[in-house]
Amino acid sequence: MTDDEDKHTYYKLTPDTVLDAVEALGLIPNGRLLALNSYENRVYQVGVEDQRPVVAKFYRPGRWTNDAIIEEHRFTQALAEAEIPVIPPLTFNNTETTLHEHGGFRYAVYPNCGGRWPELDNLDNLLWIGRFIGRIHALGKAKDFQHRPRVDIESYGWASLRYLMDSQMVPEEIREAYRVIAEQVLQKAETKFRVASDVQYFRIHADCHPGNILWTDEGPHFVDFDDARMGPAVQDIWMLLAGDRRTMTEQLSEVLEGYTEFCDFNSVELHLLEALRTLRMIHYSAWLAKRWDDPSFPQNFPWFNSQRYWEEQILALKEQLAIMDEEPLVWH
């Protein structure tokens, strides 16, 4: 089967296939099936007889190798064994297997652990989150990923820009304006990475935005390590910061106060903060473009295929260019 055939079969993943895959592991589905809010993979809450529902994640073809997926699973298992609140995949039938295959689909099954978005305007919550990120990173430094890429300018930035220019997604009349500002911000980001050239890269979550931190009465737990990579510590911190400079400085102080109880932080990484934000903006646009042939993407992101979106991106990148000229946030 070709990659295109794999993709189009994946787009037509049926409820019966989902239920059959879960049943193949020895569980007894009760017929209740709920599609969860996930776009990169297909994720479902599956009702099971005589126990709590489980969550079945079906992996998008061509994104990760089996080795890369298993490496992510092993990382979350190690974190859970260290009593860090993450959600590793379940194992079945007295085996260590976490990545399964059914009908040509690769999938994993997780416990169903709900929660709400964290209230990041509560500084105590940021302190708490910082402690757990510090613990994740302390364990993440123990060994390297062998099958997963790095957070870097080439893969997040330049490769994304090349894809966008080749994809014809940017309207012709503003294509050149987008290319010019994107190249300018990437060149500026490169200067920031040179300043921080000696920072340590290790195993991180890499997509640590508030939606991947679920809050319960017992505190936070971290989900969706699907994007886990080798990267700098600040990649798992900057997405928790929002607002004006004073507000972000206050937020950063709380996160790092908790973080440094468990893991050292090199303040030179703060030079990367806005560079990483810029890379994510370009990378996100390329991600949407790469997935546009998936019918769920035009349905859920109708604004992407519009001139207004790209005009707003040009303005946002111009703002980032100016912000990267400012001094980085300060942490004492």
Describe the structure.
- With 332 residues, the protein is an alpha+beta fold.
- It has 2 domains: 3-111, Phosphorylase Kinase, domain 1, CATH 3.30.200.70; 123-324, Transferase(Phosphotransferase) domain 1 (Transferase(Phosphotransferase), domain 1, Orthogonal Bundle).
- Helix content is 44%, strand content 14%.
- The protein contains 10 helices and 9 strands.
- A 5-stranded antiparallel sheet has the order 1-2-3-5-4, with helices on one face.
- The protein is globular.
- The model has no long low-confidence stretch (mean pLDDT 95).
Compact summary:
This protein has ten helices and nine strands. The chain is of the alpha+beta class and 332 residues long.
